[in-house]
């Protein structure tokens, strides 16, 4: 299974929804809570992934590829594409 990384802040309901979805599916993931240095991490994420404007959270990375936030994760799951995406 490809590595899953999720960038979160502790007050974000969409971060919690994304984590819940991953847990319910039994998907192991690495959580990076950026709450303490939020502005710095948002800027770094924007630079690294080429995101213009304000970087939102959660940011979900699967196998080194940024897929976006909870809405995209949920759509991939509903369409049955998330499982395929996780395969090595």
Give an overview of the whole structure.
With 88 residues, the protein is of the alpha+beta class. The chain has one domain: Glutaredoxin, CATH 3.40.30.10. Helices cover 44% and strands 19% of the residues. It is built from four helices and four strands; from the N terminus they run E-H-E-H-E-E-H-H. The protein has a four-stranded mixed β-sheet with strand order 2-1-3-4, with helices on one face. Strand 1, helix 1 and strand 2 form a beta-alpha-beta unit. Helix 1 runs parallel beside helix 3. It is globular, with a radius of gyration of 12 Å. The termini are close together. The mean pLDDT is 95.
Features:
88 residues, Glutaredoxin, 4 helices, four-stranded mixed β-sheet
Fold topology:
Layout: E1 4-8, H1 13-24, E2 30-33, H2 38-49, E3 59-62, E4 65-68, H3 70-78, H4 81-86
Parallel strand pairs: 1-2
Antiparallel strand pairs: 1-3, 3-4
Q: What structural class is derived from the secondary structure elements?
A: alpha+beta
CATH superfamily, please?
Glutaredoxin
Write down the overall mean pLDDT: 95
Distance between the termini: 5 Å
- In terms of per-residue confidence, which ranges show pLDDT below 50 for 5 or more consecutive residues? none
Relative strand content = 15-25%
* Strands, total number: 4
Radius of gyration: 12 Å
**Helical residue percent band:** 40-55%
CATH-defined fold name: Glutaredoxin
- Widest β-sheet, arrangement of strands: 2-1-3-4
Strand count, sense and closure of the main sheet? 4 strands, mixed
